Amino acid sequence: MKLQNANLSWKENQPHSDLFDDIYFNPADGAAETRHVFIDGNQLLTRLTSWQRPVFTIAETGFGTGANFLHTLAFIEQHSLQIERLHFISTELFPLHKKDLARALEQSFPENPYAKQLIAQFPPLQPGMHRINFSDRYTLTLCIGDAATAFAKLDTEVNAWFLDGFAPAKNPDMWRDELFAEMARLSPPDTSVATFTAAGFVRRGLEAAGFRMRKQAGFGHKREMLTGIKTACPLQQREKPWFAAPKTDKPKHAAVIGAGLAGITTAYALARRGISVAIYDQASDICTQASGNRQGALYAKPPVAPTVAGQFHLCGLAESIRWLNTLNLFDNVQGAQCGVLQLATHEKEQQRQQQLIDADHYSPEILIGVDAQQASQLANTKINYPGIFFPNAGWVYPQALGKALVRHPNIQVYLEAKVDNIEPCDQQWQLGYQQAGDTKAATADMVIIANAKDAQNFTQTSHLPVKAIRGQVTHAKGSATLTTVICAEGYVSPPVDGEYCFGATFDLKDPCESLRGIDHDKNHAQLQKAAPNIAAQLEAKASWDGKVGFRCATPDYLPIAGPAPDLNAYLEQYQALRKDRKANVPSGTPPYWTGLFVNIGHGSKGLITAPLLAEHIASIACQEPSPLPRDIADATHPARFIIKDMIRKKL
Ligand SMILES: Cc1cc2nc3c(=O)[nH]c(=O)nc-3n(C[C@H](O)[C@H](O)[C@H](O)COP(=O)(O)OP(=O)(O)OC[C@H]3O[C@@H](n4cnc5c(N)ncnc54)[C@H](O)[C@@H]3O)c2cc1C
Ligand SMILES: C[S@@+](CC[C@H](N)C(=O)[O-])C[C@H]1O[C@@H](n2cnc3c(N)ncnc32)[C@H](O)[C@@H]1O
């Protein structure tokens, strides 16, 4: 089913759902309603005052205008509650149009900085999970889609439920037994729930799922509402238990090996959580290898019908755009949100794009179909092909992104520092590295291997199936002015200081590190096809320069990000899979190298995959909810190749 925005009308300046014929919140006093029903209904003042753990997680059904979320932040600040980190996970099947959200919030939260940030960073109409960090203390994860379906893809612990929504009689589809079952699955004992309704089937459904419910006085004209506590705790084995997240204490010190996009974004996500991070790179600067391009396109290629990988890439694109906007990197020098045109230069791709547009799975905020004339107008140069246009995408200078992130005070970068080995030692990791001819050592609670293909040089990760793919880009001055990124067989970005960056070649098993004239010719031929006038107006070839880099690719072209499996222990623990892929296997935590994580294999899409996976790794290392639904976390899990090979009896 294609997602739709909420269809609203405004009654006395208050939002009203036409589809459900219901209101979003009490028009007389929405703040008091949230306080009575959800905040007091979950006893948040008492619970948060005495909460000792680093994270408290609230989950909500029906995000609507975000009023419950914003009132909760205001409540925490008003009472100076000292919780370290609040995660607020909400679900929304009919997200508001941004203009409606702005109208609702400008009215209810006129000078509220969190409301302004929510409006600015509200995700596009893209199914899946979208994360917005509000300061380093509050994190909103908005799951766009049906509540029960979204919660079924979470593996986290919820401490309080805001069971909001339109009246059960008006929207019975949301208030299903599956929803109550998922709520129960995510709730350890003592998790609380509160809802504005007192409907009998809701009470019975929650009780059957394992909550002890009671009625109490409702808000305003509503006589009664329901609150409850999780009591019974049926133990459920996670599907694919070999991918379950590790349970470790939040680290204090982390070491990241590799100062490319993967390493730096992970370091930043950890640093934001108060962890002190040391990054080691063998090069003399950050972002010099695959991340060393002058301009990288924020580029996704959505499939005709949505897939797990397609959703990952589009949610990753939205996440990267949020990071780049927050860091003010779209300044037309370090990056630009100028849109990306994906041209269909041959018949097969034209058919594919036509099917994609006809299937109508993607909202115009994500992509629109354009003919050659529209493409020419958007790009400000003659284009001979139709295509699809991503209005919110663009390009960025990866090193500028890296430099902005390593400025975080919790991050220290060690350059010309080549890590040779890592060993577990007394609940910590010891790193041996070479710097300025000296052999040095360092320790950390957590290590993140983010050195791309060279991850194979460490014994713990030597089994990971990555390969290098050489790519050369060309730099050339030119007089024409391109105004969007164009992707076809290759890509070209708008010029910076009159210089174009275009390419790139794509060669397996080619270790040559120097620039080659023949590769400049290949890049130029691709450019001629995509944007002939840009190619024609370049300065003479003798003045061209460029850059060679090596992408790190995996067999399924998805990155490898998460806890590092101990290969031999996996072979032992899950040996039954060799005989029967459905065999019962031990349900405990999988045998990871404690405190060791990996973030590699970003292929040609590191700019849209690295930030989201960095946030995923930092979240699971700190026992916080991940920003990834289970299917994407599993699809990028470092143990997936071991399990696949065991099932196929190759291991
Ligand atoms: C030509 C080309 C064009 C591309 N274009 C795009 C694009 O338009 N859009 C996009 O999204 N992506 C693009 N990519 C892909 C993107 O650049 C990569 O996915 C991303 O940069 C990978 O980052 P990384 O940190 O994993 O790897 P890298 O940037 O390669 O970083 C790995 C780091 O590890 C360091 N290292 C290795 N071994 C050690 C050790 N033992 N000790 C210490 N340090 C070590 C290296 O020095 C290096 O700095 C392109 C890639 C290439 C090559
Ligand atoms: C009463 S409003 C919520 C008000 C909101 N909590 C706020 O603070 O503004 C109910 C919301 O539930 C959403 N909704 C309806 N069906 C849903 C479903 N199946 N899953 C998730 N959300 C749903 C509606 O689109 C609407 O935004």
Automatic annotation (TrEMBL):
GO terms, molecular function: flavin adenine dinucleotide binding; oxidoreductase activity, acting on the CH-NH group of donors; tRNA (5-methylaminomethyl-2-thiouridylate)(34)-methyltransferase activity
Family membership: In the C-terminal section; belongs to the DAO family.
Role: Catalyzes the last two steps in the biosynthesis of 5-methylaminomethyl-2-thiouridine (mnm(5)s(2)U) at the wobble position (U34) in tRNA. Catalyzes the FAD-dependent demodification of cmnm(5)s(2)U34 to nm(5)s(2)U34, followed by the transfer of a methyl group from S-adenosyl-L-methionine to nm(5)s(2)U34, to form mnm(5)s(2)U34.
Top-level taxonomy: Bacteria, Pseudomonadati, Pseudomonadota, Gammaproteobacteria, Oceanospirillales
MnmC-like methyltransferase domain sequence ranges: 112-230
Gene Ontology biological process terms from the UniProt entry: methylation; tRNA wobble base modification
Residue ranges annotated for the FAD dependent oxidoreductase domain, each copy included: 254-619
Full protein name: tRNA 5-methylaminomethyl-2-thiouridine biosynthesis bifunctional protein MnmC
UniProt entry tagged with the keyword Cell division: no
Annotated segments matching region FAD-dependent cmnm(5)s(2)U34 oxidoreductase: 257-651
Organism of provenance: Neptunomonas marina
The enzyme's E.C. designation: 2.1.1.61, 1.5.-.-
Primary location: cytoplasm
Cofactor dependency: FAD
Catalytic reactions of this protein: 5-aminomethyl-2-thiouridine(34) in tRNA + S-adenosyl-L-methionine = 5-methylaminomethyl-2-thiouridine(34) in tRNA + S-adenosyl-L-homocysteine + H(+)
